[in-house]
Amino acid sequence: MQDQVNILVIDDEPGIRTTLTAILEEEGYNVVAAEDGYKGIEAAKKTKFKIAFIDVRMPGIDGVETFKEIKEISPDTMVFIMTAVLAEDILKEAVELGVQSILYKPLDIDLILRVIKEDVTKTNILVVDDEFSTRETLKGVLEDRGYQVAVAEDGLTAIEMAKKTHFGIMFVDVVMPGIDGLQTLEEIKKIDPKTKVIIMTGHDIESLVEKAISRGASTCIPKPIDDMDKLLQLLQTVKEGLVRTNILVVDDEFSTRETLKGVLEDRGYQVAVAEDGLTAIEMAKRTHFDIMFIDVVMPGIDGFKTLEEIRKIDPKTKIIMITGHDIEDFVEKAVSRGAFAHMSKPIDVVELLQLTTNAIEK
To answer: Alpha-carbon distance 67 to 94, whole Å?
Structure first.
């Protein structure tokens, strides 16, 4: 059911208005019908419509002028022009103005329903990169997978585009002329907080991740982008919101933290690492982590002291304690200090992923 999708039908013919409204409502859409352009424009001022069907020839104000007014009010509304006559000059103007498509009467209802479903589920993507080859390669790959893709060669252009159009996802390069990718990210999130931004870099990605995530990025990817299958898989996880789960792995053993990081990133999570408790505490002051995996035995301050400090800074963080030592004494301490769960080393990958899922659901 598409009960969250509002559709506007504007047509002076009662039969078409009633029939189209009834069919769309039966499909589960919210439909508002208007008998002329003026009433359609008033409806658009009161309700945000995902899609509008507008007849070309109507008394008072024609379909093209109605289309212009509605796009001024709601630039993101997808407009379909309906016509029973082939008026080339009018239809050419409509296409030049950005109408989604032209539908000829008598209406093909199956076609209309198919078109709606395709456009409602379509993800608009903006690729922002000053390198022509990178942005055009990404554009081609994504369009081949059915995404609607636009490009911008710098951050300022991307910001202006974001003011006019909602983009579900943006790929933003870090190093660009004018303003850099992180500044672009900050401005985009002010304009459209729902846009999910993937930061791209050809430089040190480890130092970039924390800055990007703290500014609202969904994830970071290295350049050059060679593995397109992996990119498309990442894109799907971004669409589904999985990478919104930020995880910090705290362990002084390089092999343990990198293994956990790799396993979790392969499942689409956003993962950072810290090699000791003090580093983890400083990171927690700057960034919210949904989940932390913390080893007990570490130099400086141990895992339990780290747990206590993290709980003071960010009580909402779910903490999973890890140990390779006495499990009985460890469990009691972990639970009493507010740990969400606990694990023993060597790490069982199945248990790791299950605990992560449990922490997200909780």
So the answer is: 8
Handedness of CA 181, 183, 186, 188 (dihedral sign): negative
Rounded to an integer, what distance in angstroms lies between the CA atom of residue 249 and that of residue 343? 13
Asked if 149 contacts 125 with a C-beta cutoff of 8 angstroms, the reply is yes
* Measured distance between the N- and C-terminal CA atoms of the chain, rounded to whole angstroms: 27
> What global pTM score does this model have?
0.43
Within-domain flag for 333: yes
Over the chain, what is the mean pLDDT? 84
In this structure, the answer to whether residues 116 and 33 fall within a common structural domain is yes
DSSP string, 67-132: HHHHHHH-TT-EEEEEESS--HHHHHHHHHHT-SEEEESSP-HHHHHHHHHHHHHPPEEEEE-S-H
pLDDT cut 90: percent of the chain above it? 32
- Which residues are CB-neighbours of 232 under 8 A, at least 6 positions away? 141, 145
Q: Is residue 1 included in any domain, yes or no?
A: no
